[in-house]
Amino acid sequence: MLFLSFDKPTAKMTIMTRKNIVFHSLIIACLFTGISCENKSSLTESSATPADTLSFVTTEAPRHFFNKPEEYLDWQAKQILSLTGSAMLKYPPRIDEPLERQMAMLMLDAVFHDEKAPHRESVQDFHHRRTLFALEQIKNGEVKSGVKIWKLYNMGVIARTQTVTVAFDITRGYSSKSDSFALSNEIMEKIINHCDVLFISHRHRDHADEEVAKMFIEQGKPVVAPPDIWEDKDIYSAITHLDRKAHEIQSLPLNNIDLNLEVVIYPGHQGTDIPNNVVLVITPEKYSICHTGDQSSDDDWNWIDEVKNHFKVDILLPNCWTTNPLRTSKGYNPQLIIPVHENELGHTIDHREAYALNYSRWNVPYDKIIMSWGESFHYNP
What we know:
With about 375 residues, this protein is α/β, with parallel strands linked by helices. It folds into 2 domains: about 20-120; about 145-380, Metallo-beta-lactamase, Chain A. Helices cover about 25% and strands about 15% of the residues. The chain has 9 helices and 12 strands. It has helices spanning about 20-35, 70-90, 100-110, 120-140, 185-190, 210-220, 300-305, 325-330, 360; strands at about 145-150, 155-160, 165-170, 195-200, 225, 250-255, 260-270, 275-280, 290, 315, 335, 375-380. The strands form 2 sheets. Strands 5-4-3-2-1-12 form a 6-stranded mixed beta sheet. The chain has a 6-stranded mixed beta sheet with strand order 6-7-8-9-10-11, with no helix packed on it. β1 and β2 form a beta hairpin. α2 (about 70-90) packs antiparallel against α3 (about 100-110) and α5 crosses α6.
């Protein structure tokens, strides 16, 4: 028999306790009703389930978890992520989201806003499986028109058109402060094999991974970064430092595919003094993709407000917590917004940034897509 008790909510975020176990269980029950049972007979246990297979709450569990709260939270996270992964497959990213899709995002927030999340095996496994799921698509996915976007961890994004594949801020995930959460060099190298260039917005570890940059350079692919990254390292001379000039198109040779890529490096900043490249890439097909990194300085509105007067921005990839989403949106005037930087697990709970907050923050008069790790969206206007 299940007894429900409800505690008075507080505004302060805390780690998962027994008080919110009922809440998470209710979310699971609600989302469970939204997934068809017609495929149930072919499902396997979540621990052995690939990311492209539907799964359900396991029927195998201890009779109780008396005096084992951590063991229960591990079990609960595994069940939530298993079921949420199924919901993400059944309800992929789209502009007009169904209820089930929003519930899945909320369930991910519930798991990821546990202080111990990056150290839980189920979260580590979810990160790895979702990335491998994206890797299979990146390896085999031909784009004949438009732009295909894959979202990886934190602000990591891969954008592909018919002629070029561009990576922004991709890292292995060591910023989570959990070695077991991070991707292996082998997996990352397989991703890099299918990319042509890496843009790094700024020096922070959740955006800049020196080992990843080395892999690009070893493959003869350019790495473009601000001038203050790894200044005291041997890799510095191999980094491409384009001029940070607003609205000025520069040509970046991509020797591996014999192509020159048009790029604008806007002179952005995180806070007042950290150089942050806001990168606008214009592909040979004339699609423009803008990745803002952690742009957050009010001193930069003078050029942000004018971007729309110089370029037609197809896809804007802003940090989800940027200081003024509406003004940002109006400045770039994009056809589509995909917020990024949610659930960086190395951050404290108050700055881990929930997917659910995008619905209020980015309640702007522009189309938006909310995505999680390993998901993709095909922009094809």
